[in-house]
Amino acid sequence: MSFDVAIVGGGVIGAMTALELAEQGASVVVLERGAELAWGCSAGNAGIVGASHVLPLATPAAVRDGLRWMLRPDSPFFVRPRLGVVPWLTRFVAAATPAQVERSTQTLQAMATRSAARHAELARAGLDAGYRQGGLLDVFRSRPAFDAARAGAGEALTPREVAALAPQLGPGIAGGLYHREEAHCDPLRFVLALGAWAAALGVSIRTRTEVLGVRREGRRVLALQTTQGELAVDEVVVAAGVWTGRLARELDLALPLEGGKGYHVDVEAQPGDPSLPIWLHEHRVVVTPYGSRVRLAGTMELTGTDQRIDQRRVDAIVQAATRALPALATRPPVHVWRGLRPCTPDGLPVIGRVPGVDNVTLATGHGMWGLQLAPVTAELVAAIIRAQPPELPLAPLRADRFDPPWRAVTARERGTPASAGAPGAPAPPPAARTR
C-alpha cells in the first residue's frame, strides 16, 4: 500500500498530526517502533496543557542553575558529564542571551496559547483524556523567589490564601501564584484517545514497526525501509522524538538533539488530596491529581539516550513532594516512569522541511512541552504539507537553524533553500487528497 503521508513516531506529536491530516482528507499511516502508541516520552509527564509555564529551556537562570547543580545527581537539572554533550551545551549557553530568550519566549507563548485553545476544543468534542480546567498553583518557599516571580503571570497569593486553596500543603510557604486558566489531562490517555479517533477516520497505525532507512531519488524520498518491509510514500513526517536525529542524518541534516530524561512517580489517591496541580518552584516538581492516582513529576537529566532509572532522582522527587504535602509521605509508589524528552539547545521545537528534500517534514525537539504544543504543531505540519500559509511564523523553528555558516553556503550553491520550511521558501504541491 501507499499513503499520502507516513508519520514516523507514535507519540503525542505523531498521533496529533495523524488526526489533523486525516481530518483534512489525507490517507495516513503511523509507524511506531514500540508495542503501542506513546511508547516513548509521551506517556509520562505532569499533564499540564496551559500556556503559563511554557518557556525556552535555555535561559540565563537555567545556565546559572545548571552550573550550580552540575555536581548534584539529585538536582532538578543535571548534566551527566560526557564529551558528547559538550557541543550541545555550547549552543545552549549561546542561546541563553536575553535577546534570544525574549524571541524564543514570544514564539513559544504564541504556540502554547493557540495550542491550549485547541486542547479545550478537543475536550469539548469528546476526546477522553481526563481534561480539566481547574487552574494551576505555583508554590514558593523562598520569599525572594516569590517576590521575583510575582511580577509575571498569575494571581499572587499570600500564605493564608495558598492554604485556603490547597489546605494539604505543609508549613513554610512564602506565597503562591494562581493561574486560573490552566488545565491538565492524562498524557497517556490523550495519546491513546487521539490514536483511536484517528483510526476511526481511517489512519493505519502500525506498532512494532521501526524505520531503518529511506530510499531517496534526488530531492524526494520515495519509500521508507522498515522492519515490516518497504513502504512507498508521498510525504513523510518525522516525529520520532530524540531518535529523530538518526533518520535526519540519512537526509544530510545534523540535528543537535539531546535526551532530557524526565521522571514521574504515581501514588494512590486518597480523599482530601489536592484538586488542582501544584508546582513546587524550588524543586521543579509538579504534583498532579489524576482521579485514582496522584502524579509527582519533574527533573531534567541530560543523558543522551541512556534510559536507566537513577533512584537518586526518583527519591528527590518524592522527598520534595512529601515535604510540601506531608499526607503523601505514607504512600508507596505504584508506578515509576522515565522518558527521554527531545531537547534542542535553544529550547524551540524543530518544525519544517528538511533542506534539500521536498517531501520530508520534521516535527521534533519539543523538550518538556510536547503535550502542550502537539495541537499547534499538527496544524503547522499540515500547513507545510498542503502548501498553505501557516498560522504562526515558521522561521524560528526551521530545521537548519543550527547549521554552521559553511553549510548555508553549500546549500545555496546546490540550489537548496537554506531555511526550507520558513515563510517564503519554495513549497511542494499538497499531497493530501480532498474528500
TrEMBL record:
Gene3D superfamilies per record: D-Amino Acid Oxidase, subunit A, domain 2, FAD/NAD(P)-binding domain
Domain spans labelled FAD dependent oxidoreductase: 4-383
Cited InterPro entries: FAD-dep_OxRdtase, FAD/NAD-bd_sf
GO cellular component: cytoplasm
Biased composition (Pro residues): 425-435
Segments for region (Disordered): 410-435
Highest taxon of the lineage: Bacteria
Pfam family, one: DAO
Any coiled-coil regions, as ranges: none
Keyword annotations of the record: Oxidoreductase
GO molecular function: oxidoreductase activity
Name of this chain's protein: D-amino-acid dehydrogenase
Annotated source species: Solirubrobacter pauli
